[in-house]
Automatic annotation (TrEMBL):
Native source species: Acinetobacter guerrae
Signal peptide annotation: 1-22
Entries under Gene3D superfamilies matching the protein: Bacterial OB-fold (2.40.50.200)
Pfam families with a match to the protein in the record: BOF
InterPro entries: BOBF_sf, CarO-like
Designated name of the protein: NirD/YgiW/YdeI family stress tolerance protein
Keyword list, A-Z: Signal
Length: 122
């Protein structure tokens, strides 16, 4: 019985700790991003996992779900899942407003993981 209790408590600890590393839910990012309307230049100074809203243009398809985004202050890479891309009916050259999460890395430049995007008419 003691072994069973130990195993269950260990399993619970693993599940709870893995949830802590899962990141924020999309709705939390969207709420935070409403308060953080930013430029590419400002994003470079933000902390990892900060929700942001950016407005600009998708300028290039880099590979798979990675794109280049530009505003008046600079360029940054975006990661846009295929289902989000298709649902928004996007193409390179479109002007967009996007909501995403700042994703900092140790050995490559900061990018944005997009959770919501919409075309805007320029």
């Amino acid at each position: 019985m003691k072994k069973l209790i130990f195993r269950v408590s260990m399993l619970t600890a693993v599940v709870l700790s893995s949830n802590a590393f899962a990141g924020k839910d999309d709705h939390v990012i969207i709420q935070e991003a409403a308060k953080n309307i930013a430029t590419v230049q400002q994003v470079a100074k933000m902390k990892d996992e900060t929700g942001v809203t950016l407005t600009g243009q998708i300028t290039k398809h880099i590979k798979s779900d990675h794109y280049e985004f530009k505003d008046n202050s600079g360029t940054i890479s975006l990661e846009i899942d295929d289902d989000i891309w298709r649902t928004a009916d996007l193409k390179v050259g479109d002007h967009v407003r996007l909501v995403g999460e700042v994703d900092t890395h140790r050995y490559k430049p900061t990018d944005i993981e997009v959770v919501k995007i919409e075309k805007i008419h320029h």
